[in-house]
Write a structure and sequence with these properties.
- 4% of the residues lie in helices and 52% in strands.
- The chain is mainly β and 210 residues long.
- The chain starts with a strand and ends in a 5-residue tail after the last strand.
- Mean pLDDT is 87; it is low at 1-23.
Length: 210
């Protein structure tokens, strides 16, 4: 189910190039417009990084808050905001998690939050969207683009209206000051600079004000 469909008007169908196609809202999904809160119990914000040049280490953050504003008529008006508690990092190994929280990596004591604030949103095609914003980590703010797939909407057994998105982005951790590494005897380094961020989001629509 796409939030938005491409449609050419009758008077330009034979002359206008595809790049100038009018972005038209799907009337059946206009009801999705509104404010949403990310549900941490049914969402995952994670990452994958190459370790010792031969395998991947995966982890996730267990504590975060986020909101979405979805505009079912004009996608560019949609926004997203996310605050992640760095100390909640979990890779399944306590010693490794402690190292990641230390000043070698995230320095969670000095910089307790990772934040994202969107600045633009657009339809890529079909159910695929792209959201661009500012990612702040270790007090460094740089642009981040996240590619997302819309998985649909539903009303759960408690009557809550939900939407689902899954997405990812790749960053160089050194851009945010995470530069710790160790050289391997066989060549290469212990931890890759490239990190893949993953987002599996279920968000609940806010009810009407009393």
């Amino acid at each position: 189910m796409a939030l938005f469909n491409r449609k050419r008007t009758a008077d330009t169908a034979d002359t206008a190039p595809a790049a100038t196609a009018v972005l038209d809202a799907d009337p059946g999904l206009a009801a999705l417009t509104g404010d949403y809160t990310i549900d941490p119990a049914h969402s995952t914000i994670g990452f994958t990084v190459r370790h010792a040049m031969v395998t991947n280490v995966r982890g996730a953050f267990g504590v975060y808050e986020g909101t979405l504003h979805l505009d079912g008529t004009e996608p560019a008006r949609s926004t997203a905001s996310l605050d992640v508690t760095i100390a909640s990092i979990d890779t399944g190994i306590a010693d490794r998690d402690g190292h990641l929280r230390s000043a070698d990596f995230f320095d969670a004591e000095s910089f307790p939050l990772m934040t994202f604030r969107s600045t633009a949103a657009e339809l890529v095609g079909g159910n695929r969207y792209r959201i661009t914003g500012d990612l702040t980590l270790r007090d460094v703010t740089k642009p981040l683009t996240i590619d997302l797939e819309f998985h649909g909407s539903a009303t759960d057994v408690y009557g809550a209206e939900r939407v689902g998105f899954e997405g990812s982005a790749e960053i160089l951790r050194s851009d945010w000051g995470l530069t710790w590494n160790a050289a391997l005897e066989t060549g290469g380094v212990m931890v890759s600079d490239k990190v893949k961020l993953t987002f599996d989001i279920s968000a609940v629509k806010a009810g009407p004000e009393a």
